[in-house]
Request: fold
Amino acid sequence: MYCVKCGKEIGDNSEFCPYCGAENPDAKKQKDQAADYYKQMYERENRPENYHHPQTKSEGMVIPLLALIFGLLGGWLGLLFGIIGLAKYKEKSNKIMCIVGIAAWAIWLVIYTYMRNFG
Ligand SMILES: [Zn+2]
Reply:
């Protein structure tokens, strides 16, 4: 690209002409556009709805929690909710709750079977 004032060849990204010191409007515009673009990207990434909202998180905990409760109570629903929860949720904490629910149900089943056979 060429300087708008003196006509000498200058770098495409030069904000000012190195020969006459004139401002290079194209480079400035490019730089501003890039700045705007990054600003927009930054704002988009930092929007509040992109954060994990506490309420959404607690709603997501319902099925794993049910798995845990029913698992501890010794119901088949513990297994059911545990499997649903494992399939549905990606969060590690939810998966752990589902696994604990299923494990609690499995322990209950072993005890129940034992009691029925020997009790
Ligand atoms: Zn110049």
Summary: Residues 1-51 form one domain. Residues 3, 5-6, 8, 17, 19-20, 22 surround zinc ion (CB under 6 Å). The radius of gyration is 31 Å. Residues 5 and 22 are 6 Å apart (CA to CA).
